[in-house]
Write a structure and sequence with these properties.
single chain; about 260 residues; mainly alpha; Rossmann fold; globular
């Protein structure tokens, strides 16, 4: 919206902002789409910064949230995926096709304890820590911007204005307010068919991609033993100032948009 100067995205968001590393769409198609664009490109990726080319012409925007909240979101997104269709689209015949997933509390406990390294699984706790730790180490660069989910909940217009400044995009206050209204949870859910990142139709329910839009769910679904284990692992993986920035909400309570 900042780049185009309007909250009216003309088509699917996944076409306007292609997902570069989503294997379901052939790379040639993604590149052809980007080549056709005459405006400033906005490219989505789940790859950490150390897996991307460093280019001074590019602004890297890294979105972060409490890792336990991110894990809960990951669990629910996994339940919303048609894995047979995903396997057919990517050619990846994963053993998870048809598998029964454990309840959230059990799954989250296993996610905290899993010894998987970052290079074995970017969605693992160590993978998330690697991604955020690397971005945090680069935060002093002029073209690296970190955005926290809780800041978006607390002050969406202010964060949009901050991002516009980092991108060198000037927008009137009324325009920023319009962008914020269009980016609120309810507004995005109402336009889920256009905004959900689902280029080949692997989501069972696109509206459910926008599930709750709140903070605190991660702490709500772990017991004291698992929470202590989580904090111990994170202390081993990340520096204290980053942990303080990540673990934003007081007492783990939730807030809704």
């Amino acid at each position: 919206m900042l780049v185009r100067g309007t909250s009216e995205i003309p088509g699917r968001l996944v076409d306007e902002s292609p997902w570069l590393d989503w294997l379901a769409v052939p790379l040639d198609e993604v590149l052809e789409n980007l080549e056709r664009q005459t405006y400033r490109r906005v490219i989505k990726t789940h790859t950490p910064l150390d897996g991307l080319p460093v280019d001074e012409r590019v602004t890297y925007v890294v979105a972060a949230r409490h890792p336990l909240d991110a894990a809960v979101s990951l669990y629910h997104q996994g339940n919303n995926i048609d894995r047979a269709r995903l396997a057919a689209g990517t050619g990846n015949l994963s053993p998870t096709v048809g598998a029964v997933r454990p309840p959230l509390r059990e799954w989250l406990s296993a996610w905290i304890a899993a010894p998987s390294s970052a290079d074995q699984g970017l969605d693992s706790l160590e993978g998330v820590a690697h991604h955020l730790g690397d971005a945090w180490a680069r935060r002093g660069a002029d073209n690296v911007v970190l955005v926290h989910f809780d800041d978006l909940l607390r002050d969406l217009p202010g964060q949009i204005a901050r991002l516009g400044e980092a991108l060198g995009v000037t927008s009137e206050q009324d325009a920023v307010g319009g962008f914020a209204r269009a980016a609120e949870f309810g507004a995005m859910r109402r336009r889920s068919d256009h905004l959900a990142p689902d280029p080949i139709g692997v989501l069972r329910d696109r509206a459910h991609f926008f599930r709750e839009g709140r903070s605190g769910a991660g702490v709500e679904f772990v017991d004291a033993v698992d929470l202590d284990a989580y904090h111990q692992r994170m202390q081993d993986l990340l520096e204290p100032d980053l942990l303080q920035w990540l673990h934003r909400y007081p007492g783990g309570g939730g807030r809704r948009t």
